[in-house]
Design goal:
mainly alpha; 19 helices; two-stranded antiparallel sheet
């Protein structure tokens, strides 16, 4: 019998009602209501967060086991809502400056947020797909929302075509999993795989297709090809949203999928994640070295950062999963502050995105320069910034399981990536000054920058609460399933495709 207890779904239901109500307001009042709808959306996100925090975070399964609410999904939803709130705050003034003041914009952000919240609570392949597509359809429109920009249209088309391909791969993979296990329910799939001595090749092939689709969503190599062009072509506020929130939701979905129903297939999927993590770090490190556009540089930076986050997943332990959660949270806050500065790169009302446009910023706009200095140091992994601890915990999780080669290569690529982060610092503080940016600095951007800098600088004084919350959330993923056998590390684990 279907369990129609909707209490665990209250945050999604409230946010959906808010979005549809604001859509009706926008339909009656037109684009003149955009600013009011933006702030109303932000208030709706805040209220949703309070509803979420007021729920019982003990594990509960509803809707005939299609939806699960536990500590992992609860914490991931809090992070997602924080990202949506930051994106709305950064967008309010920007969409007016760029002439894309359309009431649909904040509503699409809300619908994308609802899809992401469903993704991290999915306990069935059907609810997984519904959440993923609700997010994706909203993002396709957002990428091309600047209708008068050829670059935005190009970004939307590229993202849509490749996104449709990834959806096809996902559905094909799901059909194979269903064919071999007889179910699309995560719990049934997990029990089926744990009951066999060797994983059928059809299941392995289906898992590969699913991982390929999710690798596209987190822009991991070799499915990263859309990222630089879409980041550069989409409006900067949309790029900021792409960089912060969808990756967290997709990574949360990936963690739930691999550490619960496919825990028994650890030997198969670990090899894939190992390769994807390693190549993402290498491509993200080297490709960014030659970039002159700061949005393209941040695109390759995000590819590299997803590679670092995947190291914790390779470990296949609760400590590794907790490290991934902490890393994603720190990365989101650093990214929000960085894009707040990028949105302030305007001269005579026009946005500029060349790294050379930052020349002498410390003389013209010292506040922006020092904010970006702190965030670049943190992204480089320089202690005692928060970014250092994010990388430390994922590397430590890999070392604990014997993945010395992967951790060492992660450190090396992190040093390489530090070059292009510190290059921005050099341009701001040591190059000759050019024309100053416009003095306008909206309050919302100031708040985001202040929060990012304070968090990055003060994390070192009290890291334990964040680490314990991340580990507690990760532990809930292992309540129903455990890795069948501990990994043997780089010396014993071959990276050749699994035979099973």
């Amino acid at each position: 019998m279907v369990d129609f207890n909707l209490v665990p779904l209250l945050p999604e239901i409230f946010l959906a009602i808010t979005a549809m109500g604001l859509l009706i307001v926008g339909a009656f009042h037109g684009n003149e209501s955009t600013r009011a709808i933006c702030w109303a959306s932000a208030i709706g996100v805040v209220v949703t967060g309070f509803i979420l925090l007021g729920l019982d975070w003990n594990e509960r399964h509803v809707l005939n086991n299609m939806f699960v609410f536990d500590q992992f999904s609860g914490l991931m939803k809090v992070i997602i809502l924080l990202g949506v709130l930051a994106s709305l705050a950064l967008s309010v003034r920007y969409i007016i400056q760029e002439g894309i003041e359309r009431f649909e914009y904040p509503i699409l952000l809300l619908f994308a947020g609802i899809g992401m919240m469903i993704m991290v609570s999915a306990n069935n392949m059907l609810s997984l797909y519904m959440g993923l597509e609700l997010q994706s359809l909203s993002l396709y429109v957002l990428a091309a929302i600047h209708r008068n920009s050829s670059k935005s249209a190009e970004a939307g088309i590229k993202y849509f075509i490749l996104g449709a391909l990834s959806s096809g791969l996902l559905l094909f993979g799901i059909s194979l999993i269903y064919g071999f296990t007889g179910s699309v329910d995560f719990d049934v799939i997990g029990r089926s795989l744990m009951s066999v001595e060797t994983i059928p090749q059809g299941v392995t092939f289906g898992l590969v297709l699913i991982l390929a689709a999710l690798a596209f969503k987190i822009s991991a190599v070799p499915f990263h090809m859309w990222t630089p062009d879409v980041y550069q072509g989409a409006p900067t506020s949309v790029t900021a949203f792409f960089a912060m929130v969808p990756k967290i939701a997709a990574m949360g979905l990936l963690m739930r999928l691999l550490l619960d129903p496919f825990a028994a297939a650890f030997d198969q999927w670990m090899q894939i994640i190992y390769f994807v993590s390693l190549m993402s770090m290498i491509v993200g490190g080297f490709a960014a070295l030659v970039q002159e556009d700061i949005k393209r540089l941040l695109a390759y930076s995000s590819i590299g950062n997803m590679g670092y986050a995947l190291i914790g997943l390779v470990a296949g332990t609760a400590e590794g999963a907790g490290a991934v959660i902490l890393y994603l949270f720190i990365y989101m806050i650093m990214t929000a502050g960085t894009f707040a500065v990028v949105m302030c790169m305007r001269r005579n009302g026009m946005a500029v995105y060349k790294i050379s446009d930052l020349s002498g910023l410390s003389k013209n706009s010292p506040v922006l320069a020092y904010v970006l200095l702190v965030l670049m140091f943190s992204m480089s992994g320089i202690p005692p910034m928060a970014g250092f601890f994010g990388k430390l915990v994922v590397f430590n999780a890999a070392v604990d399981q014997g993945y010395y080669i992967l951790a060492t290569l992660g450190v090396i690529t992190s040093v390489i990536a530090a070059y292009y982060y510190l290059r921005i610092v050099k341009v701001m503080f040591f190059d000759d000054a050019v024309d100053a940016f416009d003095k306008e600095l909206p309050l919302a951007r100031r708040v985001v920058m202040l929060f990012s800098v304070v968090f990055v600088l003060c994390f070192v004084f009290k890291p334990s609460p964040f680490m314990s919350m991340s580990l507690s959330a990760a532990d809930s993923l292992f309540s129903n399933a455990a890795i069948m056998s501990a990994p043997a590390g780089d010396d014993a684990q071959s990276l050749e495709p699994a035979a099973g």
